[in-house]
Amino acid sequence: MSKFQGGKRPFFPARKPKAPPPPPPGLPARRRACDLVEAVLLRRRPLDEALEEPTDLSPLDRALARKIAATTLRRLGSIDRLLAERLAKGLPEGLPRLETVLRTAACQILFLDVPDYAAVDTAVRMVEANKKTQGFAGLTNAVLRGLARDREADLASLDPLDDLAPWLRERWIAAYGEATTRAMAAAVIHEPPLDLTVKADPAGWAQRLGGSLLPTGSVRLLPDGAVPDLGGFEDGAWWVQDAAAALPARLLGDVTGLAVADLCAAPGGKTAQLASAGARVTAVDRNARRLERLAENMARLKLDVTIRAVDALQLDGTYDAILLDAPCTATGTLRGHPDVMHLKSAADVDGLARLQARLLDRLADLLKPGGRAVYCTCSLEPDEGEAQIAALLAREQRLVVDPITPDEFPGIADFVTPAGHLRTLPSHWPHDEPRMAGLDGFFAARLKRIA
Length: 451
Ligand SMILES: C[S@@+](CC[C@H](N)C(=O)[O-])C[C@H]1O[C@@H](n2cnc3c(N)ncnc32)[C@H](O)[C@@H]1O
What we know:
40% of the residues lie in helices and 13% in strands. By secondary structure, the chain is α/β, with parallel strands linked by helices. Strands 5, 6, 7, 8, 9, 10, 11 and 12 form an eight-stranded mixed β-sheet that branches. The protein has a four-stranded antiparallel β-sheet with strand order 2-3-1-4, sandwiched between helices. Residues 245, 264-270, 284-287, 290, 311-313, 325, 327 line the site of S-adenosylmethionine.
């Protein structure tokens, strides 16, 4: 006999609504990777800026999302070529998310150490979860499985030149020739190592941190954890700075006691070098937010500098020495900032070259007669480097080039040009382990005011 007789309705206690099931592991990181890629390619935002948005992802998922997004941007040319070979009819118009899911999943299958099934499964789920794309789940599955199956042959067919954005490839070939461009393209497909500039005892710090001492004195590491967890960070014994970026400030020579203006200073890598070499540094930048980071960095490093939030074009006074690390297209930093080649264009080179010229003219006024200056950019564009200096010398009689010599300090001989400038390329310093190779592309010229 049933318990519920007499026509009475059984009483069921009200149930809490069921929480939606948690997403399968790995899905939030893949979704975030798609958002990051779209922030760059569709919304034209720098990757670093998009990475700063708050998320509720775990640190591991955040790191995976960043790696997928950065590698997709780095290898986009190859990824798109291989996808196009499998999509005979192309993709339908107006479904950018479908394209992003395919690109990021292809990136994982081809270039990252993640299981193929995880890349395929999360991609198919993302496609199924969206009404507009759910009809393409079968296609997504088939294309990605095909990529996984043919991976070895596909990888062997790749040419790193395809990964350079076309505008940049064209300009690099014109400036450096095809062989050097190919070597640079092969270098920038790798994530860079972590380079540190240390205040003192670089050999000791290389040993303590398990890194290598580079010929120019930087310490190179392949860390597997967060930078602030490394020994010496809290105490301000070192700061992160690419080995090429560490060269220009040293070209000013002995700056002990000199009044040095660092004209485009934030976040302060070169300011820190000058201050720890004993200069009285005025760190100038027009970006107040970036100057806050400079101030934090100087506090950690226990270095005392004067900070001026002002446009360098409006700066007054005179200085014994000047460093002008001018704003530029930053095409030399592609290893760490692959978004640059997708966000910048030839028009940016022209616009930035005009600003650099104005800053150089201001530098001539601010430098005391007899003083030294270094102009540098992290660009591989001659218009922002060699050609900029040639044009300056033609219009400014008070400045001459003070040639850099190959033996000035160890490790720079290969970087000194016949004109006495410094030019580093990402393909310099080859290494059997590609992640230990290379350095950013930098240009630096040393100038002297003679009148
Ligand atoms: C290449 S970054 C400088 C990196 C820095 N020297 C370092 O080593 O950490 C260029 C800087 O120039 C600043 N900048 C751009 N135009 C400027 C101007 N007209 N006056 C002052 N700063 C400017 C930007 O805000 C940016 O922080």
